[in-house]
């Protein structure tokens, strides 16, 4: 049985405005994933060497992995939210959001520090 059939088996169709809002949120997560992927690729391709050899590659790989993870979890979040709306339950919290926000902040700080140290 396909996932759309399983989704529609429980509850009732939510107001289309809420489904469209859920879809827009999904697309925002996908845009974030694409930005992380582009950031990782751009860092590896265009950034100057950092203070620690290999640090640029590690940070670029972490950005790409964050993009892959965000993309993979975006659909799961959409599906859980849609199911909750169908069953008149509260929407689930975005579990990946804290990891994503803190992770990007740590990586950005690491790049900043490594660039500054390399330019001293």
From TrEMBL:
A Pfam family hit = DUF202
Q: Which InterPro entries match?
A: DUF202, IM_YidH-like
Cellular component, GO annotation? plasma membrane
Q: So which domain of life are we looking at? A: Bacteria
Specify whether Cell membrane is a keyword of the entry.
yes
The answer to whether UniProt assigns keyword Transmembrane to this entry is: yes
Q: How does it sit in the membrane?
A: Multi-pass membrane protein
| Record key words, sorted | Cell membrane, Membrane, Transmembrane, Transmembrane helix
> Where do transmembrane segments lie in this chain?
26-46, 58-79, 99-118
Domain called DUF202: residue spans: 17-83
Name of the protein described by the UniProt record: DUF202 domain-containing protein
Places the protein is found: Cell membrane
